[in-house]
Design brief:
about 550 residues; six-stranded mixed β-sheet; globular; EC 3.1.3.16; hydrolase; nucleus; metal ion binding
Length: about 550
C-alpha cells in the first residue's frame, strides 16, 4: 500500500472494543492503584507467555482503574503490535506519551507501529525522541538508523521512478542466465533446447508435472504412501502424490530451483495473470477428488494466509491431497512475508498454477505488495536466495494477481474485506485496474485491507490502514449481489477460523502457530455443491531451524 509518509500525521480515532468503563472515579487512589498494578503484572505474564489477547484483556481491565498510566498503555500497545493492530498500538502509545512525555517506551512503541505501516519518517521522529531520553541505548540508535535508511531508500526510489520506462519483464531474457555445472536441482524436460523452445515449457498448462513433483507409488492394500518423508495422515485416503527429485522436494531440502527457470516461471505467470479479470468465477468441481471413493463429494478447498510457512503448506497437501483438476484449491493471499520460507511457498503455488491452471487459484493479499515485502522479509529473502531482478519480477506478478472470486455462484472470497461504500457491484470489482501498488483508498484497498467489526457501519481500522465494516455492510453487499457468504482471511484466529456477522462472514487463516509464537491452529474450508462451509483444523509441523523474519532488514525483530 502506498501510504503517505511524513513526520507529523494523525490517525482518526479508532473505536476500541477492548476498552472497559472507567472505574477510577468510583475508587480511592489507593484502591485503583492496587487493582491496576496487579492486573498489569498479570498482563505482563500473559504477554511474556505469548498469550496476547489475554494480555490485552488484562491491560484493558487495568486501564479501567488507571486510565492514564503510561506503562500500562505502552504495554498494551506492544500487545497490539504482536497481533498487528498497529492503529490501536499507535493510539495507545500516543496516550502513553501524553500521560508521561519522559517515558521512552511510549515513543518506542509508537515508532515500531509506524514503521510497520511504512511510515518511516514518523517512526524516525519517535526514535529520535527515544535517543534523546536514552542517549546510550544502542537498540534505539539501531532502530533510528533503520528509519534513516528507509527514508533514504524511499527518496531514491521516488527520484528514479520517472526514469523507468518499461517493466523488467519486457526486457528480461532468462535464457541468458548460465546454469552452472554444480546445479543439482530439477530441469524441465527439453530444457537443453534453450531460447524460445525453453520458454514454451513454462507456458500455462505446458509445464510438465514432473518438474513440479513426481507421484510416489502407493500400497494397493491400504493406500499408504510409500515415502520416508510423509506419514499417511489423510483420513479420507485420497491418493496423494509425493514430490520426489523435483521442485517441491528440492525446496523441502532447503535448496532452490535455478534462477533461469524461476525467471521463466515468473514471466509466464505475469503474462497469464494480467489477462485475468480482477474478479474470478470459480465453479465447484463436478468430479470427486478421489475417483476410487464415491463417498467424497466434489469440492473446492479454500485456504487463508500461509505467510512463508512452507512446511505447513506441505502439511495441508498431505492432509487434503495435492492440487489437481478434481482437487482444486483457492489460496486467499498473503503467501509471503514473516515466515522465512516465503520463496518456497509462492513458487510451489505458481508451479502448480502453470502446470494446470484449473488446479489452483490465487488472490492477492496485502502482503503481496512492495512496501510490506520490504518490511516483513520477502524482499530480503528473495535477494538472499536469488537477486534483486527476480524480486522485481515477483512484484510484477503480485501486481496482476486477481483480487476476489465468486465460488459456486454463492460465496464471495477476498483477502481483506468488503467495499465500505454502499452499492458496489461485482461488475465494478471485476473491472478494477491492476498492475500497480494498491492505492491508499478505494475498492482495491478495501479488498486487501478491510476487517469485520461487530457493530454496524464503517470505522477507521484497528490496523491504522483503511476501514472496518459492520454486519449491516456485509448483509447489504451480499444481498445486493445475490450472494450468501463472505470468506476472507487477513487475521490470525486461535481456532484457524471464525464465523461472524450472524454466519455471513468467515475468516480463515492457514498458518498454524503463526510466526512460531501465536499457538493458533490452522484451518481450511471445503465447499461442495451446496456451498455450505466445512472446516478442517490442524496444528503446525516442525520446520528447519530458520526463525521467522530472518530476512527482514533493520527492524524485523521488533515485530516478533
Amino acid at each position: 500500500m502506498s501510504l503517505v509518509d511524513s513526520e507529523d500525521f494523525s490517525l482518526p480515532p479508532i473505536q476500541n472494543v477492548d476498552d472497559e468503563p472507567d472505574l477510577s472515579q468510583s475508587e480511592s487512589v489507593e484502591e485503583a492503584t492496587a487493582k491496576g498494578l496487579e492486573l498489569k503484572d498479570l498482563g505482563n505474564a500473559s504477554l511474556n507467555e505469548g498469550h496476547y489477547t489475554d494480555a490485552i484483556h488484562l491491560y484493558s481491565t487495568a486501564l479501567s482503574h488507571l486510565p492514564a498510566n503510561a506503562i500500562i498503555l505502552a504495554n498494551r500497545a506492544l500487545a497490539y503490535i504482536k497481533i498487528e493492530n498497529y492503529g490501536l498500538a499507535i493510539q495507545d502509545a500516543t496516550a502513553a506519551v501524553a500521560a508521561d512525555p519522559s517515558y521512552p517506551k511510549g515513543y518506542y512503541r509508537r515508532g515500531t507501529a509506524e514503521f510497520a505501516l511504512g511510515r518511516a519518517k514518523a517512526a524516525r521522529k519517535d526514535f529520535k525522541a527515544v535517543c534523546r531520553l536514552r542517549p546510550k541505548d544502542r537498540d534505539a540508535r539501531a532502530k533510528l538508523a533503520a528509519c534513516e535508511k528507509a527514508v533514504r531508500e524511499a527518496a531514491f526510489a521516488a527520484a528514479i521512478l520517472s526514469e523507468e520506462t518499461a517493466p523488467l519483464s519486457e526486457t528480461f531474457k532468462p535464457e541468458t542466465i548460465v546454469i552452472e555445472g554444480g546445479y543439482d536441482g530439477p530441469h524441465p524436460a527439453g530444457y537443453l533446447e534453450g531460447g524460445e523452445g525453453e520458454g514454451r515449457l513454462f507456458e500455462v498448462g505446458a509445464l510438465p508435472r514432473e518438474f513440479v513433483m513426481v507421484s510416489a507409488p502407493q500400497d494397493p492394500c491400504n493406500n499408504m504412501l510409500l515415502d520416508p518423508y510423509i506419514s499417511n495422515i489423510n483420513h479420507h485416503c485420497i491418493p496423494t502424490p509425493i514430490a520426489s527429485q523435483a521442485s517441491i522436494e528440492h525446496f523441502r531440502s532447503q535448496k532452490v530451483v535455478h534462477k533461469r527457470y524461476i525467471a521463466h516461471l515468473l514471466l509466464s505467470a505475469k503474462r497469464y495473470f494480467e489477462n485475468l479479470p480482477s474478479l474470478l468465477e470459480i465453479p465447484i468441481p463436478t468430479m470427486a477428488p478421489d475417483l476410487n471413493d464415491p463417498s467424497l463429494p466434489p469440492r473446492l478447498t479454500v485456504c487463508g494466509d500461509t505467510h512463508g510457512q512452507f512446511y505447513d503448506v506441505l502439511h495441508i497437501f498431505e492432509l487434503n491431497g495435492y492440487p489437481s483438476k478434481n482437487n482444486p484449491y483457492l489460496f486467499n493471499g498473503d503467501f509471503v512475508d514473516r515466515g522465512s520460507f516465503s520463496v518456497e511457498v509462492i513458487l510451489t503455488l505458481l508451479l502448480f498454477k502453470l502446470s494446470d491452471p484449473d488446479c489452483i487459484h490465487l488472490h492477492r493479499g496485502n502482503h503481496e505488495t512492495k512496501n510490506m515485502n520490504k518490511i516483513y522479509g520477502f524482499e530480503g529473502e528473495v535477494k538472499a536466495k536469488y537477486d534483486d531482478r527476480i524480486f522485481e519480477l515477483f512484484l510484477e506478478v503480485f501486481s496482476h494477481l486477481p483480487l476476489a472470486s465468486v465460488v459456486g455462484g454463492k460465496v464471495f472470497v477476498t483477502h481483506g474485506g468488503l467495499p465500505t461504500e454502499p452499492g458496489v457491484t461485482l461488475a465494478e470489482i471485476r473491472k478494477i485496474k491492476r498492475g500497480c501498488e494498491p492505492p491508499n483508498e478505494g475498492l482495491m484497498s478495501d479488498l486487501l485491507w478491510a476487517d469485520p467489526q461487530p457493530f454496524p457501519g464503517k470505522s477507521p481500522s484497528k490496523r491504522g490502514v483503511g476501514f472496518s465494516f459492520g454486519p449491516d455492510i456485509t448483509e447489504s453487499f451480499l444481498k445486493g449481489n445475490g450472494l450468501q457468504l463472505l470468506v476472507r482471511s487477513h487475521e490470525v484466529k486461535d481456532e484457524g477460523y471464525l464465523v461472524e456477522h450472524g454466519g455471513k462472514t468467515i475468516t480463515v487463516f492457514s498458518a498454524p502457530n503463526y510466526c512460531d509464537s501465536m499457538g493458533n491452529k490452522g484451518a481450511f474450508i471445503h465447499f461442495a455443491e451446496d456451498c455450505e462451509p466445512k472446516f478442517t483444523q490442524y496444528e503446525a509441523v516442525p520446520h528447519p531451524n530458520v526463525r521467522p523474519m530472518a530476512y527482514a532488514a533493520g527492524m524485523g525483530g521488533l515485530f516478533m
